[in-house]
Specification:
The complex is a heterodimer of chains A (about 220) and B (about 300). Chain A has four helices and 13 strands. Chain A is α+β, with helices and mostly antiparallel strands. Chain A has two domains: about 5-85, Gyrase A, domain 2; about 100-225, Cyclophilin (Beta Barrel), CATH 2.40.100. The chains are: A alpha+beta (about 220), B alpha+beta (about 300). Chains A and B meet through strand 1, strand 3 and strand 4 of A and strand 11, helix 2, strand 14, strand 18 and helix 4 of B.
């Protein structure tokens, strides 16, 4: 269901959107960008494709149900790569990434939205914190800022839409909730997620040998400080 | 060493960028016209990975206490030397010890690149000397140059001789060639007609993160998209219908529908657009775009 057909025909075409169920569906973003619909198998496909050397591939960027392949300038996809994209998507990888226990100071100045979020969820402050610390999160992908990890696994009761108006400045290390995701702001800056606490970890430092603390597939467990 | 007597509007240390960190949320960045910087490096005998300066709209005044070999490529700016000698583009300029090079405003276009023999020797961060302004790292302390800065330069004797015969890509033209994007099929006929059939103006809120365009609204069914990977040149359409061309320091993912992507062969022109310029889009086939990119870059391989 790939299409690298004549784009001049585009205005007449009514093509369906990328559909995760299609597994190997892919579309061009530009002649260097190939967007794969990977659905729940995004991490598995990312792991599978990254484990091999593709001379024509410059980078692989996992996101929310999609995986972007960036081709080197001027490179075309080899038959082997096309074949790998069309192969059956494997089920979510059972391989476990590194587990990071992260201590969090909940509420107060560190987490100014905690009380409102607890009230919205119909929970006491302590019950909210217990709920947030009870589960193991998985890094689905990184984006927004260098090192900003989108953590999957937030209990459904804690899902909440982003703030109507973003804060101008969110302190680095803020633990935040946005939609179905939890995240930790790597650097101070504007942010639209709800702040529930602060972690005393440096999640991104470009000068470290491993700049990002959290990588796709890693796991996180929050611990109340 | 180069002393920055007066900084320009936005002078950034740049090389070919940092590849392979997309999964960490870090874009490649690097020179907005990578080939133009390679060409400048070639002119002074550097290898193509050497760092130079990317100069935007109005340039700096630079003092060379020990002299140096420099070259300028890209858009032409007003330029003068304290020696009174000429400062032509696309040529190696031998500056005497104590000479000052003064760049004024861009005469046409938006950006030029300055290479110095030996390269600008700031430390590499994540494999690159390029400045990444949005997160404040790379280049000179992660920021644009300021008056009073001292720029370290590499040992000129160690610069590798480069055999490339790359010519700078032409930056003239009014049409950006694009590949239809992943959500192109979800725009309605009126939206597609607006996008492909009408001119857009580059808005004032444009920088290396993205070019914000102003013009006919590109209507679409309000799409709620999960965050998807994007790359420079991808054209997002937010709910107000005014397209954004993602730039070199843009985000690596986003949730707005992507209608099209500017081909790499047209990045040199993208790099020269400034607020107020107008442009139009036309589609090109993927394989044709890949061939055009090869014509630029295969020649650029350093032996």
């Amino acid at each position: 269901m790939s299409h690298d057909t004549d784009p001049h025909a585009l205005p007449l075409a009514r093509r369906s959107s990328l559909h995760p169920a299609a597994g190997a569906a892919w579309r061009w973003v530009s002649e260097r960008g190939v967007l794969l619909a990977t659905g729940d198998a995004t991490l598995a496909r990312y792991a599978a494709l990254s484990s091999r050397h593709w001379p024509e591939v410059e980078d692989l960027v996992p996101a929310d149900g999609t995986l972007l392949l960036i081709l080197r300038p001027g490179a075309a996809m080899s038959a082997a790569l096309r074949q790998a994209l069309c192969a059956d998507a494997t089920s979510p990888s059972g391989a476990s990434g590194v587990l990071h226990p992260i201590r969090v100071e909940y509420g107060g100045v560190a987490g100014p939205d905690l009380d409102a979020l607890a009230a919205r969820a119909g929970l006491s402050r302590d019950a909210y914190i217990n709920s947030h610390t009870a589960v193991e999160y998985r890094v689905a992908f990184l984006g927004f800022q260098p090192g900003f990890a989108y953590l999957q696994g937030l209990p459904a009761a804690l899902h909440v839409p982003r703030r109507a108006s973003p804060r101008v400045r969110v302190p680095a290390g803020s633990v935040a909730i946005g939609g179905v995701y939890c995240g930790i702001y790597p650097a101070s800056g504007p942010g639209g997620w709800h702040l529930i606490g602060r972690a005393a970890v440096t999640v991104f430092d470009p000068l470290r040998p491993r700049p990002a603390l959290l990588l796709p597939g890693d796991r996180v467990r929050f611990v109340a400080a | 060493m180069i002393d920055v007597l007066r900084a320009g509007f936005c002078d950034l240390v740049m090389d070919q960028g940092r590849t392979g960190y997309g999964a960490l949320g870090v874009p490649v960045g690097g020179a907005a016209d990578p080939a133009a910087l390679v060409y400048a490096n070639q002119l002074v005998g550097n290898n193509k990975e050497a760092a130079g300066l990317e100069i935007t709209l109005a340039g700096p005044q630079l003092f060379f206490p020990a002299g140096g070999m420099v070259a300028l490529t890209g858009a032409r700016f007003a330029a003068s030397r304290s020696s009174g000698a000429a400062a032509p583009w696309n040529a190696a300029l031998a500056l005497a010890a104590g000479e000052t090079l003064t760049l004024g405003r861009a005469e046409a276009g938006c950006r030029c690149w300055l290479a110095v023999r030996g390269g600008i020797a700031v430390p590499r961060v994540m494999g690159s000397r390029s400045t990444f302004l949005p997160a404040g790292f790379g280049g000179l302390q992660g920021r644009r140059l300021q008056s009073g800065d001292a720029l370290p330069t590499g040992n000129a004797a160690e610069a590798a001789v480069c055999k490339v015969t790359l010519q700078p890509a032409p930056s003239s033209g009014r049409v950006l060639r694009v590949i239809a994007g992943p959500q192109a099929g979800q725009f309605d006929d009126a939206g597609l007609a607006a996008f492909f059939g009408s001119p857009y103006r580059v808005g004032p809120a444009s920088d290396r993160r993205g070019l914000r365009l102003l013009g006919a609204a590109v209507s679409h069914r309000s799409l709620e998209l999960p965050s998807q990977g994007v790359l420079p040149g991808a054209i997002q359409v937010p709910p107000d219908g005014q397209p954004i061309i993602l730039g070199w320091d843009g985000p690596i993912s986003g949730g707005y529908p992507v209608i099209a992507g500017v081909i790499a062969a047209d990045w040199p022109w993208l790099a020269q657009l400034q607020p107020g310029d107008t442009l139009q889009f036309e589609t090109i086939a993927v394989d044709a775009a890949q061939t055009l990119a090869r014509q630029t870059w295969i020649q650029g391989e350093v032996e």
